[in-house]
Design goal:
Two copies of one chain form a homodimer.
Chain A: E1 5-9, H1 14-29, E2 34-38, H2 41-48, H3 59-73, H4 90-102, H5 107-119, H6 128-136, H7 142-149, H8 152-167, E3 175-178, E4 181-184, H9 189-198
Parallel strand pairs in A: 1-2
Antiparallel strand pairs in A: 1-3, 3-4
Helix pairs in contact in A: 1-5, 4-5, 4-7, 4-8, 5-6, 6-7
Chain lengths: ~200, ~200
């Protein structure tokens, strides 16, 4: 079995959400697993000087039009912009790290449950209690993931994850790395698909 | 005949170049003409606070990897990063505006000749003499287009074009508008294609 596809994402990223809905099938098509890597774009952006997309003049207006259009284009049903956006994403990111360590088979389901809570149901997953409740729908223990959000060890793990992501060149969401080759954006999934099929060009 | 596709681009934009190589066929497929709209991203970026992509930490390194990879992915042969990059693009942009006014049938050929001079042959088309020489290969009069670069009326026309582009929401290159619907990037050409086929979704 080849190495897993590294899929970096921030829970407050609409394009990251779209990518999360497509990456399972893309990986499976090529016999790969997905390594789900939550990051905090707020921290990453300090390195690049970026600001949240929706807060950029002109470009922000475009992005609010492009999000639902791209969702429909990619066949992702149910997308709606959350009322509160962007949000800090430490809580859901820590839940994912805890899940990877303690219930790895549930990781994909937990990511999907959290993302859908935010981008379908307008649940503010920056709130620890709401994030834990959303994740529990994917079969992890609600009390355990709620506790993980405040666990210093999990907090440190997320900081380390962010450091590793930045060291690997991650600067946006979604960010996919296939055998060392980096692809930024769900709009590079067509290139990811061909790269997986051909090993590069 | 439906309205032309508005194709906004900056001559110093690698993704604009890739778009320029694809837009003719995409438009023709749907029975549309292309309205070539050169803009100056340097002016546009003042509104959004953007800086040239290659100058952004981390993201710049990625972009230098993504340019040739995307060129190959899109089947665009001969791409190479120019030695001097980015460049100011008043000279080639003014040549295009002159051509649209005085030899409109040559417009696409002039755009292609200028873009290829820069991104294939490493010609510094920010230099008026070199831009005029490159454009002349597409069948326009070299002395006439060289004079256009210094013509106050053409200079004013380019300023007006930039104002109109920004008023239309253009903030990057390439930027394609189809019947009022905006699409940023050559990586939205798949959406442009479907939009032209279906009239939206």
């Amino acid at each position: 079995m080849s190495a897993p596809i590294e899929f970096y994402f921030d829970f407050s990223s609409p394009y990251g959400y779209l990518g999360s809905e497509k990456i399972d099938a893309l990986a499976a098509k090529h016999g790969r697993a997905v390594d789900w890597r939550p990051v905090l774009l707020g921290v990453v952006f300090r390195q690049t000087g970026a600001v949240p997309l929706t807060e950029v003049p002109i470009k922000g207006d475009y992005s609010r039009r492009d999000f639902p259009r791209s969702a429909k284009f990619h066949g992702v049903e149910g997308f709606r912009m959350p009322t509160k956006f962007p949000i800090p994403t430490q809580a859901p990111a820590r839940i994912v790290l805890w899940t990877k360590a303690h219930a790895p088979a549930r990781t994909a389901a937990v990511v999907h449950a959290l993302y859908r809570a935010f981008f379908h149901e307008d649940v503010d997953i920056s709130r620890p209690d709401l994030a834990a409740k959303a994740a529990a729908k994917a079969g992890v223990d609600e009390a355990a993931v709620r506790a993980a959000i405040d666990d210093p060890a999990v907090k440190d793990a997320l900081k380390s994850e962010n450091e590793r992501a930045m060291a690997a060149g991650v600067f946006g969401s979604p960010f996919t790395i296939v055998d060392g080759e980096p692809f930024w954006g769900v709009d590079r999934f067509d290139q990811v698909d061909r790269w997986l099929a051909t090993g590069g060009w």
